[in-house]
Amino acid sequence: MKALPTYIIRFLLYGVLAAPLLLFGLYAFSEHWFFPAFLPKDWTTAPFTRIVMDPQTGNSLAASLGIAILSSLLSLLVGFPAARTLGLRNFRGRQVAWLIFFLPTVVPPLAVGMGLNILFLRLGLAGTLFGVVLSHLVPTIPYTIFTLAGVFASYDENFEHQAWVLGATRLRIFFNITLRLILPGLVVAGLFAFLISWSQYLLTLLIGSGQVLTLPLLLFSAISGGNPTSIAALALLFVLPPVLVIAASARYLNQHGNTVREQH
Amino acid sequence: MAPAILLVGTLFGVSLIYGLAQSLGLLTGTDQRTLSMAAYQNVLSGSEGVGTEFWPSLGFSLWIAGVSTLLSAAGALPVAVWLNHQSGRGRQMDTLALNWNLAFPHLVWAIGLLLFFSQSGLLARLAALLGWIQNPADFPVLVRDRLGMGIIVDYVTKEIPFLALIVLAALRSQPEDYGVVATNLGATPWQRLCYVTLPQILPSLISGSLLVFAFVFSAYEVPAVLGMPYPRMLPVLALDFFANPDLHHRAEGMAISLIIAAVVMVVAAISLRYEKRAGYSQ
Predict the structure, then answer these.
(1) Do B126 and A201 touch (CB under 8 A)?
(2) What is the DSSP letter of B46?
(3) Mind listing the domains of chain A with CATH numbers?
């Protein structure tokens, strides 16, 4: 027999988390849903299809996906060796290195984006996909490093030494030992990098100079447009990839999610 | 290590230097060639333009960030303590549910609240269904309101799971025996909570709450969607001035942005002190 508070908390928790999807569904798949009708009478997929099929939506989705995937892969590539050193070694300047990675996680993208704006304009990086990816790396690399460093802190290097003694090549050690032990952390770190890049609005706006259009930018212009159906349809499209990615990596999150402090 | 430090350090460092230079009037596209504190003076004590809006905005930002942080902490505590008493499959599901929150970026969450709480939103329609109101205008203004309630609701509902996970991690890293000892010595469940559990998790909770404060104080999306034209939170004000076609305002926007960054860094530094006390510093 469970206590009533358990059910109440659980109801609130699951209710609040399911509500946005249901709400967007109501608005995205209906027409002529005027006040004071509580539920839509005309269900239709026409507006949703129109918005999703719009070339601008397609291009933004592709840009969003490309930027987020590229940012998270680069973050993992660059972050992995740094995290390993930070998690396993004690060295001079460790505090400084830690601080350099910590600061971008608290200083808002607003300040970073506004500062980089002029520089990237001068370098010709403003308005390019590469420039936007580069700016996204400022927050994504540190989060990747902190997630992975936490994993490496409880990593036993002796497994690698053992394999080395038994004659395994470096490549084999990496793929058969390091990668397998670190994989759950790697998945979670990549997930966080993806989410941060995916939901990034300010950096894309300030570095993309109106040339790089991603879903958050499209959403913002839909919000100022004020049509609830377009807003809801785009919002659905925007949460779909994160929802899928989180669902796919759920079991890893249960192991490692608690160790991460992440905001996006 | 080197590539990561180089990449992050250079980009971040250069952005700060360029930002500072712009706030001092250089590089803003105007013909100014000397350093000047004019932007800061205009922001802090100007009698027109940005000067009239900075202090109300600062007050509004502090109000939103303060209330959101306190309510999130107050809400996260029972959720975490309760979750810690769960076991087995239910507990796994609940932890997953808290992580599920990550799937919703703040922008999406704000849009959800907008569609739900606005005067022609779902809640207003429910009120009409129950016969409480006739017109959308009869429904109270809950989002895009003067007190920023919509913004606060957004942050509180998003940050409770965030803080709950932090507190939960602290609870799970504590030996269970203290509670058992207290019970053996005759402590009531309430005493156990106040004198055993709370002191164990307080440093983590404070450290996490300060991070929430810093985030809310400096984030742009939610106040941009759920806020009013006046008063605006500081990040909204900063971007508006920075993006102003009149290039003389760029420096003022940059100055506000750096003031925000300075506040955030101080808060984060205090948070780190508490995190060290919590015993799992990096």
Answers:
(1) no
(2) -
(3) 1-44 (no CATH), 55-259 (1.10.3720.10)
